Amino acid sequence: MYSKTEWATAERQEFADLLDCLDDEQWSAPSLCGDWRVRDVGAHLVAYLDRSRAGFFAKMALHLGRVDRLNTADVTRLSKWSREDIIDAVRANAEPRGVSSGFGGRIALTECMIHQQDVRRPLRIPRTIASGPLLAALDFARIAPLIRGAIRTRGLQMIATDVDWTAGHGPEVRGPGEAVLMAMAGRPDALPQLSGPGVRELSRRLDA
Known about the structure:
- This protein is mainly alpha-helical.
- 55% of the residues lie in helices and 5% in strands.
- The protein is built from 11 helices and 3 strands.
C-alpha cells in the first residue's frame, strides 16, 4: 500500500515527464488556469515545492490573504526561468516538503493532479489515473479551503462512476472521477463529461 506522500512524489515525477515531452508550441499553449500558459503552471508548481509553512503564511499576509495574488507574484518572479530550470526543479523536489507536505502529502498530491490535468486537457493528452491517488484527491478536494470543492458542490451529490466514491446530498452529478475532481476545482472544461440533474446548477456555479 502506497502512502499519500509516495503518490504525490510519483505525481510530480509524472508531471515533470509530461513537461519534458512537450514541444515549444505546447509549452507556450494556454492551460485551464485562467490566462496562464503551460509554462506558467509549471512555474507555479515550482514556486511552492519547498516553501515552509511559516514562509507560506508570511507570503499570504504580504498579499493580504489573497492566494491568487501570491500565485501571480510567484509566476512573475519565475518568468525568467528556462524550461529546463522549471522541469529540473520539479524533478529535484518531487518529494513533498514544507507546506506542500501538509495533510500527509494530500496537498501536494491534489494540487499537482489538478494542475497536471490543467495542462493535459487543453493539449488533448489523456491519461488514466490510478484509483488510489484519485480517491485521495477527491476526498481532499472537498475539504481543502483553497480548492473550495465543498462550496462549489454544496447541496449536490457528486458521484464518480469509475471509482467507488460518492459525496454530498442533493441532485446528482455523475461522471468519471477525474472530471468530478476538475469540476470541484472550478474547471468548466470538465462539465461535458458530467451528467445528472445537478449539472445545470454546478454549471451555473462555475459560470459556464
